Amino acid sequence: MADTPHILIDLGCGKRKRPGTIGIDRNSQSDADVLHDLNHYPYPFPDNYCDGIYSDNVLEHLDDVIGVMVELHRITKTGGFIEITVPFYAHRNANTDPTHKHWFGVHSFDYFVEGTDHSNFHYSPVRFRLDAVVFDQGIRQTHWIDRMITKFANAKKDFFENRLANIFPRAQLTFRFTVVK
Known about the structure:
By secondary structure, this protein is an alpha/beta fold. It has a single domain, classed as 3-Layer(aba) Sandwich (Rossmann fold), CATH 3.40.50. It is built from four helices and seven strands, in the order E-E-E-E-H-E-H-E-H-H-E. The two termini are 28 Å apart.
């Protein structure tokens, strides 16, 4: 019996849609398979539709982070993954783009993760398991100092964010979640 193919979504795919994914974007000039404004709910997928979602530097442009997280939870199967890459608040690029509406730190998504200091606020009923938070995932750093700082930041996230982020800012954070239903 053949394995069931996995359905993966590239949220806000733009012109860099990941191979093997269903791209969704509002821009008709993008590589999207589905044209939809991500600020409007519901997204055009049924409940429990996909096995995983990638969102690469998209969430900071959208109006309602909580609403997006609720929608991603709705369309992803139990046990599926969601990988979100966003600008790190301390980096100049986070504040340079006038279309950015949100900035993110290491604990920005704790509100959706049971057992964290922020989960008791219950901004939404959806829950995820946080599997990883990584500074500058996939960014090629040519200078050894940048590689060393990123390695330290990933090893000591809270210390780095609280004490060193404004001196040695990293460009982005990637969060990896498992959907809990």
